[in-house]
Write a structure and sequence with these properties.
- It is a single chain.
- The protein is built from 28 helices and 16 strands.
- By secondary structure, it is of the alpha/beta class.
- The structure holds iron/sulfur cluster and Broken Fe4S4 cluster.
Length: 658
Amino acid sequence: MAQEKSVDKAVLEVLACCDGEVETAFDRAEQVKPCPIGADGICCRICFMGPCRLVGKVTRGVCGATRATVAARNFARAVAGGAAAHSDHGRDLALTLLAVAKGEAQGYRIRDVAKLYMVAGYLGVETEGRSVNEIALDVAEKALENFGQQQGEVTYISRAPHKRQQLWRDLGLVPRGVDREIVEIMHRTHMGVDQDAEHIMDQVLRAALGDGWGGSMLATDLSDILFGTPSPLQSQVNLGVLKEDEVNIIVHGHEPTLSEMIVAASSDPELVAYAQSKGAKGINLAGICCTANEVLMRHGIPPAGNFLSQELALATGAVEAMIVDVQCIMQALATVAQQYHTLLIATSPKAKIEGATYMEFDEHKAYDSAKEIVRAAIENYPNRKEARIPAIRENLIAGFSHEYIRYMQGGLYRGSFRPLNDAVAAGRIRGLAGVVGCNNARVTHDSGITQVIRELIRNDVLVVVTGCAATGAAKQAYLRPEFMAEAGPGLREVCEAIGVPPVLHVGSCVDNSRILTILTQCATEGGLGEDIADLPAVGICPEYMSEKALSIGTYCAASGVYVLFGVRNPVAGSEEVVRIMTEGWEAKVGGKIEFEPDIEKLIEKALAHIDAKRAALGLPAYDPTRYGESGDRLVEQLRSSLGEEQAAALYSVPELSE
Ligand code: SF4
Ligand code: MSK
């Protein structure tokens, strides 16, 4: 039974250990049955004549709304929620950059000046003869304008391939301002406004584009400017990164503004000495969810787990403080924390949590706030009782920003996407896939994520990962270079030549915007068409749970990508909306969204799409026997001469010291 809950051994160990002692999302998923009408998207509760449940013979609500209108409105509001979350995150980073530029943000500085110049170029900010702070101030203000702008175009639309920009303009899909499109969804889906499902879904495309090419892309860029653009580094993952003899602090949520300061404070000599005075050997920092990805990508701080591990981390009894900000924080955490000694510290003025200790994080005195929070964690160390940390952790390599992916294909002066495009064109790499998104307690934890990645790699598909999917992959050792031994022969050759794993961790959920940049660079490099929709590429979200995942899927589809979701179809109750998102969007924008809960079928569909795109480009059909001479030979020779274990050791990441 427990076996079906997760494929993560550490999760299973803690679940077995705390069975009957603590209630988790795994238990509640069994107790709370989803309402099938709501799950299919055909329950309308937009006005108070409802809720109207359009099932069986009931095809219209009290106002006459059809299933298509209701399903489209429900989907639209979910995307608006997701786009708002990403975009508010981006806005907060712009406000932090503004405060840094004015010298009002204690502890922060501009870490990547080269990226600041690049972003200034995108935003039309003059750089000649100006100081870094003057440029940063204008960049922050231009970024903020993109959120509140009422007319015109979100600036980063100009970073898409020309053909795509033109298509969006012709279709009237270019977002005017990030916030405006979200507000317009809320207005249009109010009772008695937009009643045409396709017209509602057009606005969904426009608002989601404002997320992907607006809020999220700005969030990524501004984070890189403030905290550094990631490049490859080693770390570890899973609950075994918690330490018996140190003060364990977990950062959980999304925005790097807070976690960056916690990283700095946790190595402050004064606080380390304070931890030692309480009997601990030091301060050990780990992450959960996307905050984990932010601090992993830039500092190598290990993720303790992904979304469904959050309660279990506390159930180890070894966590002195879990520091949370916004998004994906389960309300049950406060109850779990109270069962152990953990201090759950809420920090965002946007997110008060009943049962948590509230310590507001003020970016204007960020370092002082962070030190105060870390001090509270240290003071809790003597309260720890029994710790049950599973001895399970895995090594990984992360930090593949799109800048680094370009750099690794030719260095600083000759970096390009030419080698990748050539490998795809020749059939050495069959295609490209982004495997992203959450965990969902309705399906076996990490199972869909790992099955999809494993099969794609075996079929010579290069995979990039973000969010909780990246953590799920890392826990199964997929982010180690030796995982290339599992790859198909052609992909293995490429990974050996460049020296990278076949699964590249590109960041957090907002960093799905890095995938848009990678796809744009592949599309404009030459040899694979001239638009994102021409590429043999797919986006897959096997275990989605959040509204943000729907926004990400929608902006990818609007950008020309075939997107497959696992779990279940949230608009299944309306054939018309299903048709709009599939054939309709494919004809209109070249991308589409399909929901396929059967993971084997999902993989088949992904590979069939990649092959169809290869054929449309006139590329040779994928042939797994054609390549792999160098890679195969090397690995096979090593295996036969040294034995499996020693051969694997040659590819392995050296063990990290404690
Ligand atoms: Fe029912 Fe129409 Fe009101 Fe929706 S908007 S709850 S369908 S009456
Ligand atoms: S944290 S949005 S569960 S990926 Fe970004 Fe993970 Fe999904 Fe939250």
